[in-house]
Automatic annotation (TrEMBL), chain A:
This is ABC transporter substrate-binding protein. PROSITE patterns: TAT. The keyword Signal applies. Residues 1-26 form the signal peptide. InterPro entries: BCAA_transport, Leu-bd, Leu_Ile_Val-bd, Peripla_BP_I, TAT_signal. Belongs to the leucine-binding protein family. Gene3D superfamilies: 3.40.50.2300. It comes from the Bacteria. Keywords: Amino-acid transport, Signal, Transport. It comes from Bosea minatitlanensis. Residues 30-366 form the Leucine-binding protein domain. Transmembrane segments: none annotated.
From TrEMBL, chain B:
The chain crosses the membrane at residues 25-44, 51-75, 95-117, 124-145, 173-192, 260-284, 296-315. It comes from Bosea minatitlanensis. It is a multi-pass membrane protein. Keywords: Cell membrane, Membrane, Transmembrane, Transmembrane helix. This is Branched-chain amino acid ABC transporter permease. Coiled coil: none annotated. Its main location: membrane. The keyword NADP does not apply. Pfam families: BPD_transp_2. It is found in: Cell membrane.
Length: 391, 335
């Protein structure tokens, strides 16, 4: 009898403790510090991710694992020291449980130390240099890596009769990643590659494109950061390279969905490999695109938006797994190996590298109705980041 | 007899500037008290202290020697990269790194000073701008040394004086930056009130007359320019050490342009101009950016236009009135 009573009492006590702690947790929101370039040359990235994060909260609700998600948006204008200071302030003053955003590689790298020191997960929603996730054990990525997208491009080019390629990439982490991974893979397949690099800030492509037109390659492999593609395409046409029969290939950044309509018909026929296209053929994606456009005056979601949306999804999933415990180590543990059906297709966080495993699609830019779209015609399943996979 | 009284009056006038005004003491007490008053804002305070030092540097050449510059970021960047590289390859001692940053920037100032001494204000603007642009591109293309557009990674700082570690809350950072600022401010204060500083002002006001009365214009200006460069280098070194990261941004044009704005807000030609300007500029920027992360640049632009059009006297008048009142209190207390 007494035994039974103590057991009952214990259970009651436990239940009470669980419910009160649950109550306390539900009371306190989980703060997410979202640092994005909302102004400056990379503002389009910030705009897309910000819109996607808002859409996530609107569509999938703000409460996950019994805790409310609260997003604090900060603008770093694409300057790494501002990102770092904002991250530090968010951790120290606002006590955020998660840092997210990071439009460019230097911005994500500058924050790595803060994430490690404060044991706060850093969700990289955009920046795509392969090595970022190695900078801190608290970094998880929901965008993609440049080698992940570039190596399939090399395979496709080698298979489709392209022998001589000229690469033009932006001279910073991701550009160098794209160039080396493409060139390495393409040379293995027996092709020849010539390379030039263009500065990140205020790029003028004309002199580089002049060299391309003199070299007369079969194809021009190009990587520019999201948003800069329009400028590149304009100069590509001005140099008459489209008429000279140079095929344009690359990871999908240059024909970014956000600016594709602005680029216009010159983009037709561009072959790219990427993890997301707004034209991805699945019911989930159609709904996502429609909802995104409805909420943002017709703006088309690009791969940045998807990185932002899935970043929020990952935080929500992790919180559900930890039942609302928002301590950094628990969240990171829950994020490792998490998998879900994203609007881009199935995705999984690699438990070893904390990088994303996803399908890469080969796409061709063509007209769908009256709109330009990157239409997927080949799928390479479950691609890991090749750089870290080789290690 | 008359000559003597005249001389003593001149001496008195010159000494008046050297004496510590009660408002000045209050200013520095507040700056140090801010450490305790705003424990959650230390990171911002640290940035303000660094910007203030940077503005002090420009004030030395613009306000006192009359040299306009649109490329002061060149020295900030040189100091930052020198201190960052020093920490990465030589050792993590902050004070040694600070010395390295100051030395590198000072050397650059000395080397480029002959360029700046030629020509008029307009050519000076172009030359200083050009020097900064060259350095920016150099830092961008020397990726193996500076990390290029990815920034200088792996800067790890040791504790200050072997005792105080840099913490995530910015406690050490702010006190360290503030102490450096205060020390260099004291030096600057001594310099501008010395015969050397007076000769600079003479050159600024009338170079012909200054050289006629035996002031070696070129050498004095070169010395002032070098000192200012050293100060900017110190600001850069502090920036690199307290953020433990250096990006190309430290050499960017907007750094120089912002600095001009800081001096316009605070007023050039007196040592506190840069400091007050830095406080106003940073607080304003922070407040507006928190309020509207997307459109803060618009508001700050609008504010600056209005400010330059007519609001400047209001702030200066206000500062003077407050200073006057504080002085009154100080005097009252002394009695």
């Amino acid at each position: 009898m007494t035994h039974r009573r103590t057991v009952l009492g214990g259970m009651l006590g436990l239940a009470l403790a669980a419910s009160t702690s649950g109550y306390a947790l539900a009371q306190e929101a989980v703060k997410i510090g979202l640092i994005l370039p909302m102004t400056g040359p990379f503002a389009s990235t910030g705009k897309q991710i910000d819109a996607a994060v808002k859409l996530f909260l609107a569509r999938e609700g703000a409460v996950h694992g019994g805790r409310k998600l609260e997003v604090i948006l900060k603008d770093d204008a694409g300057n790494a020291d501002a990102t770092r200071r904002l991250a530090q302030e968010l951790v120290v003053n606002d006590k955020v449980a998660v840092l997210a955003g990071f439009g460019l590689t230097p911005l994500a790298m500058a924050t790595a130390q803060i994430a490690t020191q404060a044991k706060v997960p850093e969700i990289v929603m955009a920046a795509a240099t392969a090595s970022i996730t190695e900078a801190s054990p608290y970094i998880v990525r929901t965008s993609f890596t440049l080698p992940q997208a570039s190596e399939p491009m090399a395979d496709w080019a080698a298979k489709n009769g392209i022998r001589k390629v000229f690469t033009v990439v932006t001279d910073y982490g991701p550009g160098i990643d794209a160039e080396t991974s493409f060139a390495g893979r393409f040379k293995q397949a027996g092709g020849t590659v010539e390379s030039v690099r263009v500065p990140l800030r205020n790029p003028d492509f004309a002199p580089f494109l002049q060299r391309v037109s003199e070299a007369k390659p079969d194809a021009l492999f190009v990587f520019v950061p999201s948003g800069v593609g329009a400028q590149f395409m304009k100069q590509f046409v001005e140099r008459g390279l489209d008429k000279a029969g140079v095929k344009l290939i690359g990871p999908g950044d240059v024909v970014d969905d956000d600016i594709l309509e602005g680029i216009g018909d010159v983009a037709l026929g561009t072959i790219t490999t990427h993890h997301y296209s707004a034209a991805h053929d699945s019911p989930a994606n159609k709904e996502f695109v429609a909802a995104f456009q409805k909420a943002n005056a017709g703006m088309r979601p690009n791969f940045m938006a998807v990185g932002g949306y899935d970043g929020m999804k990952l935080v929500a999933k992790a919180l559900e797994a930890t039942k609302g415990d928002s301590s950094g180590d628990k969240l990171i543990a829950a994020m490792k190996g998490a998998s879900w059906e994203s609007v881009r297709g199935p995705v999984k966080i690699d438990p070893e590298t904390r990088d994303i495993i996803q399908n890469i699609y080969v796409r061709k830019t063509q007209k769908v109705g009256s709109e330009l779209h990157n239409v997927e015609f080949e799928t390479i399943k479950d691609v890991k980041d090749p750089v870290k996979a080789r290690k | 007899m008359r000559a003597e009284t005249f001389e003593s009056r001149v001496r008195q006038a010159l000494h008046a500037g050297r004496r510590w005004h009660p408002a000045e003491i209050a200013f520095w007490c507040l700056a140090f008290a801010a450490f305790l008053l705003f424990p959650s804002q230390l990171l911002l305070l640290n940035e303000i202290a660094i910007l203030a030092l940077f503005a002090l540097s420009l004030d030395l050449i613009l306000g006192y020697a009359g040299i306009v510059s649109l490329g002061h970021a060149a020295f900030l960047g040189t100091g930052a990269y020198a201190a960052g590289l020093f920490a990465k390859h030589v050792g993590g001692d902050p004070l040694a790194g600070l010395a390295a940053g100051m030395a590198a920037a000072g050397l650059l100032g000395l080397v480029t000073s002959p360029l700046v001494l030629r020509g008029t204000d307009l050519t000076r603007l172009m030359i200083t701008l050009g020097v900064a642009l060259i350095l920016y591109e150099l830092a961008n293309s020397l990726g193996w040394l500076t990390g290029g557009a990815d920034g200088l990674q792996g800067v790890v700082m040791g504790p200050v004086l072997g005792l105080f570690d840099f913490d995530i809350f910015g406690r050490t950072a702010y006190l360290y930056s503030l102490c450096v600022l205060f020390t260099l401010f004291l030096v600057a204060r001594r310099v501008v009130h010395s015969p050397f500083g007076l000769s600079l002002r003479a050159i600024r006001d009338n170079p012909l007359r200054a050289s006629a009365s035996g002031v070696p214009n070129a050498r004095r200006l070169a010395a002032a320019y070098t000192i200012a460069a050293t100060y900017a280098g110190a600001a850069g070194a502090l920036l690199a050490q307290t953020t433990q990261f250096v990006s190309l941004d430290v050499l960017d044009f907007h750094r120089s342009a912002d600095l001009m704005l800081v001096l316009i807000i605070g007023g050039a030609g007196y040592l506190y101009g840069g400091l007050i300007g830095a406080i106003a500029f940073k607080l304003l920027q922070d407040a507006i950016a928190t309020f509207t992360p997307q459109y803060w640049m618009f508001w700050i632009g609008l504010f600056l236009v209005l400010f330059v059009l007519g609001g400047r006297e209001i702030i200066h008048g206000g500062v003077k009135a407050v200073a006057g009142r504080l002085a009154g209190i100080g005097r009252g207390a002394a009695r």
